[in-house]
Specification:
The structure is a homodimer of 202-residue chains. The first copy, chain A, has 202 residues and is mostly helical. Chain A folds into two domains: 43 residues, Homeodomain-like (Arc Repressor Mutant, subunit A), CATH 1.10.10; 145 residues, Tetracycline Repressor, domain 2 (Orthogonal Bundle). Helices cover 79% and strands 0% of the residues of chain A. The first copy, chain A, has ten helices and no strands. In chain A, helix 5 packs antiparallel against helix 8 and helix 5 runs parallel beside helix 9. The longest helix of chain A has 28 residues. The first copy, chain A, is elongated and about 60 Å long. Chain A binds a DNA duplex (30 and 30 nucleotides) through helix 3.
DNA sequence: TTATAAACCAACCGATCGTTCGGTTGGTTT
DNA sequence: AAACCAACCGAACGATCGGTTGGTTTATAA
């Protein structure tokens, strides 16, 4: 089990750094000390190896958000959305290789032909969009969020925070320096225009 | 000049569809009808071919925005920002292959080692961020934009619109259906909280 | 018409690609 | 102890990779 795990770990780094075509099985063999044949003993081919990695990423992200939402205690919908945005950035910083993988193009290209790959990606994005959307809907009930279109605003919010996470790993932005401005932007975007200053409402 | 242009055109499509490593010179030769040696007659190697393409993309985008800003007549800073966001999406729809290239990871990876590549990418992003920032600053003078941090808000705005353009080409979103919600989000994000309803000031 | 250079070509190079294969371990199960 | 097993190995496969070569066509200008 040790070698197989080492292969998965090294391959995650390799795929994220060099892309699918750029990652070679020979280099993976060198990195792990596993012989060429060993890799193909554990995974039937290169694509299967990648799908194993992507599936693991999906599990990790989904269960991380699950845990976060279960533990946290939000006073209203707006705080839930803010928390989700903040946690997404935090997770992207903690799982840099995995998020770099998700920010590359080849998984989405592969998803066009491979239903398993498509399912993994859709699971991730559906889950995240649902969290944002539910926060908005809850906020519209409790008075913390304005009457914006929920699903569409969730998409815009997500593309905003994911874009910043992406530019951060590309080293074009510094996400940390943008953090407070980003949270303020979220509040302005979906928050009520004239709340009771303290936005704690039933 | 005909063959060289055909090579550039086909290579743009190939690089954007398959990435740098996935695009093969043999396939490019097949696509264009040019012999293998002919491609290396016009471009000294694969990387040089890509840099020629990236340079062309930079020229096209920069001059398109130059023309747009020269022709348009904005009443205030907020309208300028809205116009720039709108035009960016429009351009991304018109130049799908080029934007797909910019949304892949390999150009940013290459930029780490190749100063020419880095210069091209920085030129594009600096130009766009400057446009957004100037619109915000102008809006803060004419009263159409709130007192948000200019450069940081420009970055957030840009990552938002670029993220949507990216998800659109990945076929996860439909940018057209998000358009009006996006423009509204922009206005809420940086616009004054309580303008004169019609925000024509000064 | 001839000289010159640019454009173009097919053939070829060594290296590397993903993958396969025959065979060797060391530990369980029969 | 015989049979079986998954884990592991390294050599070898055909295909394809980016790039080079030497020679032929084409266009230009004297």
């Amino acid at each position: 089990m040790s070698k197989k795990n080492a292969i998965l770990l090294a391959a995650t780094e390799l795929f994220s750094q060099k892309g699918y075509d750029g990652a070679s099985m020979a280099e993976l063999s060198r990195m792990t000390g596993a012989a060429g044949g060993t890799i193909f003993h554990h995974f039937k081919n290169k694509e299967d190896l990648f799908l194993n990695i992507l599936g693991g990423i999906k599990e990790t992200i989904l269960s991380a958000f699950d845990q976060y939402l279960k533990d946290a205690n939000f006073r209203n919908g707006l705080e839930l959305v803010e928390g989700a945005v903040s946690f997404y950035l935090q997770l992207a910083g903690r799982m840099q290789a995995q998020f770099l993988l998700l920010h590359r193009h080849f998984p989405y290209k592969m998803a066009e032909a491979n239903p398993v790959c498509r399912d993994y990606l859709e699971s991730i994005y559906d889950c995240l969009l649902d969290i944002f959307e539910k926060g908005i809907l809850r906020g519209q009930k409790d008075g913390s969020v304005d009457g914006v279109p929920a699903r569409q605003s969730a998409m815009i919010l997500f593309s905003m925070v994911d874009g910043i996470a992406r530019f951060n790993t590309y080293q074009l932005y510094d996400a940390g320096a943008l953090y407070s401005a980003l949270m303020a932007a979220c509040r302005k975007m979906i928050g009520l225009k004239r709340p009771t200053d303290d936005d704690a409402v039933t």
